[in-house]
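One example given next:
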Amino acid sequence: MKRCSTCNRTFTDPNLRFCIEDGTPLTDLEPDDDATVITPRDTQENNWNTAAAYQPPRSYVAPGGDVRKRRRAWPWIVGLAGAFILGILAIGIVALVVAPRVAQRVEQAQREVNREIAPTTNSNTNSNTNATENVDAPVPTDHEQVLTQLKDIENEWTVANLNADKKKLDRILADDFVVKDDNGQLISKADYLRTIQRDTQTEKWEFNDLNLKLTGDRAALSGTITYISGDQRVVDQFTDKFVWRDGRWQATGSEVKRGEQDNVDNH
């Protein structure tokens, strides 16, 4: 089992190396020692060996010989029935008084929860990770806000690529997404998801020289991404294109110029 040191989520997949939520490298967890459970010895078998106290036989009472006692039993029956009825009435009265208050508190608590998870239009967090996103939300126009959102998507995209997380990639990539391979051939979203493979070598990465071009509901983000594995690193140049669709940014295209691998010590 592995744990993310940032969000404290644990993962059972032994092949995962990075957190699928924030990209933090995962750390191995040592299994806890099994606790010893001590079950108390059943004492029931001792009860079978315990001799019952001797009771003398009761005197025989002929039918009709205890009429007086039987006649006096009915007040107890009436009293118990009356107490039972009074208890039922008391419970009903308490329920009528308390139930509306409990329902009101539950409704108020639910409103508080809904208020906490409701999306805010001024949030700078990535729209792709907002479970309560508004599909009719207007296109963001603030340059710094969009740059932050797209950088968050790029990090999620990188983590999904390294983990071959097809579910995450399916959400990040638009249905009309295309990417050019190293030979200049266009690859569709379906082929991209079908051929993606897990990367077990990359340890970390970083983005540099980011440049955003924002035109209406279209955006293009270019820059470099450096992949580091041990003492080796590779710097790729990229240009990713996005469209604002269904209340979030979705990637529609990507062009990558692969860099050559070199030694980290040389820089």
